[in-house]
From TrEMBL:
Pfam families the record matches: Aminotran_1_2
Cross-referenced InterPro entries: Aminotransferase_I/II_large (IPR004839), HisP_aminotrans (IPR005861), PyrdxlP-dep_Trfase (IPR015424), PyrdxlP-dep_Trfase_major (IPR015421), PyrdxlP-dep_Trfase_small (IPR015422)
Transmembrane segment boundaries: none
GO molecular function: histidinol-phosphate transaminase activity; pyridoxal phosphate binding
Protein name according to UniProt: Histidinol-phosphate aminotransferase
UniProt source species: Ferrithrix thermotolerans DSM 19514
NCBIfam families per the UniProt record, alphabetical: hisC (TIGR01141)
Amino acid sequence: MKPRDSLGLREGYHSPQLDVEVRLNTNESPFPPPREFTSAFESYLRKLTLNRYPDRSYKEVRAAIAEAYDTEPERVFCGNGSNEVLLNIALAYGGPNRRAVVFEPTYSLHSHIASTVGTEVVTLGRDSSFQINDALVQQAEDISPEMVYLCSPNNPTGALEDADIVKKIFALSSDPLVMLDEAYADFLGQKTNLGSEPETLIRLRTFSKWFDLAGLRFGFCIASKEVVSVLDQVVLPYHLDQIKQVAVLAALRTRQHFEDKANAICKLRDDLYDSLVSLGVRAHPSNANFILVEFPEKDPKMIWRQLVERSILVRDTTSWPMLPPSLRITVGTALENERLLVALQEILR
């Protein structure tokens, strides 16, 4: 029997996992977790009873996230990465005979996850500055979607969604559920300020970026108590294992040490941006831990191949929808960034 036609990642999502010396392709932190986290994590691990199932409702984790992000535990839902959170939202609120709107270019998994569960995905293109304007909001109004996906800072552009435009999307007459993916928002030190929080808002966060814990696979959302109650009914039982739960507690307990590293990444990002601009390429200002780069006089795919030959891996975004031919570069350590810049100087001669 053949699988459904809607299954399968579209071209361009999978990032090659190549054996290279400098990996700047998946927006991971270039730094390992701080030793304070490791120490706290080890202390928690010694107390685990792995012959028992984990706390199904992960009460301690919910309480810790609620305290860190100024909300209530009943408004927190967690998963194995924010993609699993997105999947459970789509299972609960998407599906056949329902529509979702995405504004490209943006994070590929939004449309992929929605279509995988049978949701009709309607794609609208952002304007030339990668923003959503009033005309696009009106197009969304005409579509009458049940769900809308937003991303701020947006991946792959690094741009913020305009708060006034986001408010207009909440005012759509179809009263859609709005997923505001804030995977990189911690690099800003603030969330998108919408004033009062609409009941249809779902904010998504991850520990894979600002926290140096991509290998942990943990994400969460903050939503209305009604939405979280529905997601609790959809998710598989015992989906958050004991080890993951205590790792989250250890990370939140040592949050200040992660913040110090994140501040260093922001400084490295700004220095990298200035250096890229000095090379004569078009680097887009970023509020995240990556920079989107266009090369006016060179083929980005050729540049990507020549970087791989020098054992440097960045993200080839040339096939991403509604995006100019470009590469997305994750911010690395100072030495990694310098090695990238030297290689680009050679290639761009």
